[in-house]
Amino acid sequence: SYNERIRPLLDAIDTLRNMGVMKAYNCLVLLLWETSRLEPGRSINDTPITLNVGKSNAPDLTMVDFPSITRVPVHGQPQDIYDQISQVIKQYITPKESIIMNVLSASVDFPTCESIRMSQLVDEKGERTLAVFTKVNKAAEVLFEKVTVDAVNIGLGYVCVRNRIGNESNA
Fold this sequence. Notes:
Pfam families: Dynamin_N. The protein is an alpha/beta fold. It has helices at 2-19, 21-25, 81-93, 114-122, 140-149, and strands at 28-33, 62-65, 98-105, 129-134, 158-160.
């Protein structure tokens, strides 16, 4: 849905703009969605779906949304599904001009998160890595410690996205 998938992405892009990252990298932003799911019975391919959005006086921005990093094949997925997904992700996150945006639930254990591990393989110092945490209102107590300790070396920092509660509106 919009509030779960699109709004956090737009908020993260605004944060990147405010940090000046758009100017520094001429922006290839990559997304590792821990929450997305591969359709049952489907394999993956490396052909991107392209959406062009134009605005004058705005930097070019390419975003790639990856399937969830699946280790165990289910519902007819190929036995090498993990290898297929890993290969596609690495193809996009390896170039030095890429910014890696890990989008994951605030409740996950960051040091064991596969998307962060993959980021560290190609960006050891974390200079191109940003983490966006969703559902922060469900893990507020432990999240502050995780972010301040920065055990996983997220160089571009953390963006925390809180879900709406009850009747909160856009106002």
